[in-house]
Amino acid sequence: MHILVLNGSPRPDGNTAAMVRAFAKGAEEAGNAVTVVNVCQKKIAGCLACEYCHQRGSGHERQCVQQDDMQDVYPVLDSADMIVLASPVYYHSFSGQLQCAINRIYALDKPKALKKAALLLSSGSDHVYSGAIYEYQNSFLNYLHLEDMGIYTAYGRQNKSPEKLDELYQFGKTLNQASFSEV
């Protein structure tokens, strides 16, 4: 199975990146192909709401008018069975860079193979997750009709702790052919 991780952290060695590495290691050991896209290292603009991508009969359905690095992400997204959104929590939501990438998924309407999703969040406090979780559950999952595979959070001293990283590694290990054939 193919898992796409959109890492929304601007810090390559930060807490979110450590969570992503632990998850990806477990998922790869379970036999999955994992692609990690560090969206903060990409030039991905916000959605223009121009509806170019949804003009039926135009010959450019499912194509974004913006020619930036999101064009490289679309084919990976279209072939992924699962997407993992990973982000530090900024003002009770995703990083701005990740939010731009999420909004641009709209161009594909619904990615062709995508069936499941998970959320990885890191923060300095345990009471800041509600906005990001609401956005994930009520906008992202519902709009794309995806099965929720889990929400994993780490805050304060949990960040980069062996216990938390093992939890994410074990989550990745549980994702195998059987977990994808259930849908």
TrEMBL record:
<protein>
    <submittedName>
        <fullName>Flavodoxin family protein</fullName>
    </submittedName>
</protein>
<dbReference type="GO" id="GO:0016491">
    <property type="term" value="F:oxidoreductase activity"/>
</dbReference>
<dbReference type="InterPro" id="IPR029039">
    <property type="entry name" value="Flavoprotein-like_sf"/>
</dbReference>
<feature type="domain" description="NADPH-dependent FMN reductase-like">
    <location>
        <begin position="1"/>
        <end position="146"/>
    </location>
</feature>
<dbReference type="InterPro" id="IPR051796">
    <property type="entry name" value="ISF_SsuE-like"/>
</dbReference>
<dbReference type="InterPro" id="IPR005025">
    <property type="entry name" value="FMN_Rdtase-like_dom"/>
</dbReference>
<dbReference type="Pfam" id="PF03358">
    <property type="entry name" value="FMN_red"/>
</dbReference>
<keyword id="KW-0285">Flavoprotein</keyword>
<keyword id="KW-0288">FMN</keyword>
